[in-house]
């Protein structure tokens, strides 16, 4: 069935509800690397029918912060309009750009606040080409039917390897010796320089990065302990400790791998530095708010902490340049004056391998959402998926209905869909937002219009999309 695009007005009411009209021309896979295809399917597999925007050129995408070429290629291959910028944008310019885009891709510097998202009248999805999503107002996005995807695992190895390198560099004071020799100073010393073999590494946060780091550290002969808010299976001979204080008192090296949450704000402060072993080392490659940096400066000046490595900071520049000074963070010059301190510009995941993998993972998630409405991997929406339509399903449409999670909605939706054959349907909720996906058959052009208008008229409606 080939249907013309519906004549839906571009401007919507204040709630910014939108319709996305699509038809069937291509597919995107729904399986992940954790779900390999089975050769024991049992039944004949029909050719998959692929949903895609009716006019791919109408899908406008804005990519900021030098998103990797792999992600750009995936989106360009779909025929979308893709605008690519190497840097982030200040809020006023971001608001101007975001007003007419359907998809935005960012990394860690772009701040998608409620003030910015309020202007994004056409936006249906956000792709965070990084681990974190704290730069996005997730609740506002969910409340307005905007899905958010990220790449929580793809740069884990890169960060773990950086931390291993920093552990060795701090133990041997390599940064100081290198800087001295660059200035022509020959300073061959062994005092205060150590092997890492036999030392104890304390990992705060035993997730994807922390657990990989654990394996690498044990391979170098280190003992590993870790603290996490949930009980997790230890890898190798590592051991979980009951609280943060125990970890700080036993570890020679302490490394942070936690998300930015209210409970992790200044998680390492004056009290925690007092609990650390004298002459120990601190590494933070998680979030800049986790460590109280003025307290770290004091701890290093007194010798309590023998060295530190920081890859993240409370305030970070939006682009490259001469910005890391007191105008950005009031303690920056004091921090820069310290010895045996490694400062890097948030490069934990900045490897070719990690950025390529992130580009693929997030790019494919965006295509699946735009083309098929699949929310698997979304961080602020219920995760809903339906098996793909087949080429035999020529007169089918897919209805996506994002709505407030209140009583009675499904009854009203099913009354609207009741005049049609609902082949399959799935719904789930997450907090105040619910997500319904249904494939229905035997729908003509007028039926599509009627369905859309009836769903949009429901008081509970946040956003309606119809794909065909």
From TrEMBL:
Transmembrane segments: none annotated. The keyword Lyase does not apply. GO terms for molecular function: 2-oxoglutarate reductase activity; NAD binding; phosphoglycerate dehydrogenase activity. Its EC number is 1.1.1.399, 1.1.1.95. Residues 398-468 form the ACT domain. Belongs to the D-isomer specific 2-hydroxyacid dehydrogenase family. This is 2-oxoglutarate reductase. It catalyses: (2R)-3-phosphoglycerate + NAD(+) = 3-phosphooxypyruvate + NADH + H(+); (R)-2-hydroxyglutarate + NAD(+) = 2-oxoglutarate + NADH + H(+). Pathway: Amino-acid biosynthesis; L-serine biosynthesis; L-serine from 3-phospho-D-glycerate: step 1/3. Catalyzes the reversible oxidation of 3-phospho-D-glycerate to 3-phosphonooxypyruvate, the first step of the phosphorylated L-serine biosynthesis pathway. Also catalyzes the reversible oxidation of 2-hydroxyglutarate to 2-oxoglutarate. Pfam families: 2-Hacid_dh, 2-Hacid_dh_C. It comes from the Eukaryota. Keywords: Amino-acid biosynthesis, NAD, Oxidoreductase, Phosphoprotein, Serine biosynthesis. GO terms for biological process: L-serine biosynthetic process. CDD domains: PGDH_3.
């Amino acid at each position: 069935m080939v249907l013309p695009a519906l004549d839906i007005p571009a401007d919507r009411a204040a709630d910014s509800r939108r319709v996305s009209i699509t038809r069937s021309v291509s597919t995107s896979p729904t399986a992940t690397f954790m779900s390999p295809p089975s050769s024991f399917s049992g039944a004949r597999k029909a050719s998959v029918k692929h949903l895609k925007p009716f006019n791919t050129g109408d899908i406008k995408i804005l990519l900021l912060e030098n998103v990797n070429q792999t992600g750009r290629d995936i989106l360009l291959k779909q025929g979308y309009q893709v605008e690519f910028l190497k840097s982030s944008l200040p809020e006023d310019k971001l608001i101007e750009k975001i007003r007419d885009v359907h998809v935005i891709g960012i990394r860690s510097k772009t701040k998608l606040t409620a003030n910015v998202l309020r202007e994004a009248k056409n936006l249906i999805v956000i792709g965070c080409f990084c681990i974190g999503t704290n730069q996005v107002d997730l609740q506002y996005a969910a409340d307005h039917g905007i899905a958010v995807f990220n790449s929580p695992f793809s740069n884990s190895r890169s960060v773990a390897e950086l931390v291993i390198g920093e552990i060795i560099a701090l133990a041997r004071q390599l940064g100081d010796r290198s800087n001295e020799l660059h200035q022509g100073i020959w300073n061959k010393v062994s005092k205060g320089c150590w092997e890492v073999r036999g030392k104890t590494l304390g990992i705060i946060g035993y997730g994807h990065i922390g657990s990989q780091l654990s394996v690498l550290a044990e391979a170098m002969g280190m003992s590993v302990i870790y603290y996490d808010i949930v009980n997790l299976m230890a890898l190798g001979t590592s051991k979980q400790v009951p609280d943060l204080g125990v970890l700080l008192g036993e570890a020679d090296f302490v490394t942070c791998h936690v998300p930015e949450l209210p409970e992790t704000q200044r998680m390492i402060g004056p009290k925690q530095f007092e609990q650390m072993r004298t002459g120990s080392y601190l590494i933070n490659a998680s979030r800049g708010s986790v460590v109280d940096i003025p307290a770290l400066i004091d701890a290093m000046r007194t010798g309590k902490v023998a060295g530190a490595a920081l890859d993240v900071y409370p305030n970070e520049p939006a682009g490259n340049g001469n910005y890391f000074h007191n105008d950005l963070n009031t303690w920056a010059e004091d921090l820069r004056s310290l010895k045996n301190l490694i400062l890097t510009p948030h490069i934990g995941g900045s490897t070719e391998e990690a950025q390529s993998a992130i580009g693929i993972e997030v790019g494919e998630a965006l295509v699946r959402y735009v083309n098929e409405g699949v929310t698997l991997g979304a961080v602020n929406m219920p995760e809903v998926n339906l098996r793909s339509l087949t080429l035999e399903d020529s007169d089918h449409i897919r209805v996506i209905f994002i709505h407030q999670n209140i009583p009675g909605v499904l009854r009203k939706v099913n009354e609207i869909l009741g005049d049609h054959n609902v082949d399959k349907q799935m719904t789930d909720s997450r907090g105040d937002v619910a997500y319904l996906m249904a494939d229905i058959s035997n729908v003509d052009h007028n039926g599509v219009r009627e369905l859309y208008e009836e769903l949009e008229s429901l008081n509970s409606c946040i956003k309606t999309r119809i794909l065909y």
